[in-house]
Amino acid sequence: MQVDYIIVGFGLAGMAITKELEDNGHTFVVLDNASQVSSRVAAGVFNPVILKRFTPVWNADEQLGNLFPFYKDVSKRLGGEYVSFFDTFKVFKSIEDQNNWFMACDNPLLEKYMEPKIQKENINGIQHYKGFGRVKGTGRVLVKKVLDDYIIYLKAKNQFLKVPFCYQELEIEQEGVTYQNIKAKKIIFAEGYGLKENPFFNYLPLAGTKGEMLYIKAPSLKLRQQIKSSLFVLPVGADVYWVGATFNWTDKTIDPTEKGRQEMLKKLESMIDVPFTVVNQFGGIRPTVKDRRPLVGVHPKYPQLVVFNGLGTRGVMIAPTVATQLYQHIEKGKELPKEISIDRFSELFS
């Protein structure tokens, strides 16, 4: 088999670069063994405001501007609907929270998203102290569904192989690479936390942060919006809510833990005052970087090798924009933005 690109990994990064290549008429094959699950267990929420600090998400306007046409195109291609919209209500726990909210509403980067008033309405089942702040322009991408549908689409065209990737079998040649019976001009690694095992790019400082989440069933809650306090509570249908998440910087397994469960239940019980049952608990490793920016670019020694990683907790927002920037870099020679280029860690390469 001869193609322009081999793509290793098919989470949000892999899907975004696959679409970019197809849009521009390139041939490719995706290799993925589903060993990394961070995209599949992601809530898929897009939100332009960091509610912990009332600050704007990096590059939020551009990212949202690219997100909507990206998923509109994907919907046409796959025949499904993958984006839903809702408001996000931030719980105010103090007068200080309210004051910080109003100060943030004056920020030109935030004023279009944050409503400059306090929502006083009672929301059945939600405990709050000083009202809510409403964030507009938020919603959710059905990540698992879109990835599953995209895989079906690619398999039908013989462009997807569910196989593990063996780095020892990659042959780097002058004009490209060969992997088993596949020849390509370039190979793009979009492996999420699996990058830690990649001998070509494991010098990059991908930290990885474990997150655990719950599904709960709460028939009397009846939320129509996402509620954000010490956890987020997100309605997903049929009286089921997605609740999360924990942050653990030391545990690198995806296994759910009793400690994580108790941490979330304690916080949840301080947020809601209606009966609920836990339906499921699950975890994943977010591909996070210390400066909270993606890891994108060409290997410093082998230009045939490319990396697209480090999307962290906001992959649904970041992936479409950065996939286009990466494509323009490797095919058109356009310089990558410095904040995402792996060149910022060149001193770590030896």
Give structural notes.
This protein has 350 residues and is α/β, with parallel strands linked by helices. The chain folds into 3 domains: 2-42 and 144-206 and 290-348, FAD/NAD(P)-binding domain (3-Layer(bba) Sandwich); 45-141, no CATH class; 209-286, D-Amino Acid Oxidase, Chain A, domain 2 (2-Layer Sandwich), CATH 3.30.9.10. It is built from 6 helices and 18 strands. The strands form 3 sheets. Strands 1, 2, 8, 9, 10, 11, 17 and 18 form an 8-stranded mixed sheet that branches. Strands 3-7-6-13-14-15-12-16 form an 8-stranded mixed sheet, with helices on both faces. It has a two-stranded antiparallel ribbon with strand order 4-5. Helix 1 packs across helix 6 (315-332). It is globular. The relative contact order is 0.18.
Please give the structural blueprint.
Elements: E1 2-8, H1 12-23, E2 28-32, E3 45-46, E4 49-50, E5 55-56, H2 60-78, E6 83-91, H3 95-105, E7 132-141, H4 143-156, E8 160-162, E9 170-173, E10 176-179, E11 182-189, E12 209-217, E13 226-228, E14 232-237, E15 240-244, H5 258-271, E16 277-286, E17 295-298, E18 305-309, H6 315-332
Parallel strand pairs: 1-2, 1-11, 2-8, 6-13, 11-18
Antiparallel strand pairs: 3-7, 4-5, 6-7, 9-10, 10-11, 12-15, 12-16, 13-14, 14-15, 17-18
